[in-house]
């Protein structure tokens, strides 16, 4: 082999080695990048699992407060995690509670979850009625409770909270509000929104209250002040709002309907910012 041929062969071998090493380095870099991506994905997965666990803990905490609102009734219904099999004891309690409820109310339940929420709401309502003195206790329709876990909506007609024509909370409602405040104070991650509602009748021109906006807001604010001043609910957790006559639940053309529309709603609901903090972590 001539010297030129020998050099050509050596050059080819060296070039082949260089190309192979280049490919090797490329593959090695890709492998390293994939390992880092897998590591990051595992870290994200672990963080998501932690956040999911935290959310589950929050929801379970609210479920416990809902159970607390039911009191110590033998028909108390334990709320289970969504998707879990409901215990036979819970089903039995739901059936017993349903047997006490009006037929038209029972017919509104379309699913097992509806039935459980309605039964829980009935239990809470019964327990709240007990908080009122016998001589001040009002008819069943004056208090309504609905549950869409973990949110509890407590609706009180004005005769539960106020004397006729007044927006100051009547002392007869203190036991009722004290019970609600007890549950609120035991759950720091719960906000409370109080909504005032009115019928659509105009107020007398001589009234010191301007209109139904003014009345609904004053009554909501009065409930909020009572919860804060009398029962030590922190003011930064309370929201007062007035809806005037724009959210009726009954026909304003009848006295019965107007009486139902004159109401105050107390919503116990998870703190949205708390949920967002968990999700953003």
From TrEMBL:
Residue stretches in coiled coil: 24-72
Gene3D superfamilies reported for this sequence: OmpA-like domain (3.30.1330.60)
Segments forming domain OmpA-like: 149-272
Record keywords: Coiled coil, Membrane
Pfam families noted in UniProt: OmpA
Alphabetized SUPFAM superfamilies for the sequence: OmpA-like
Signal peptide start and end residues: none
InterPro entries: Bact_OuterMem_StrucFunc, OmpA-like, OmpA-like_sf
PANTHER family xrefs: LIPOPROTEIN YIAD-RELATED, STATOR ELEMENT OF FLAGELLAR MOTOR COMPLEX
UniProt-recorded name of the protein: OmpA family protein
Taxonomic placement: Bacteria, Pseudomonadati, Bacteroidota, Flavobacteriia, Flavobacteriales
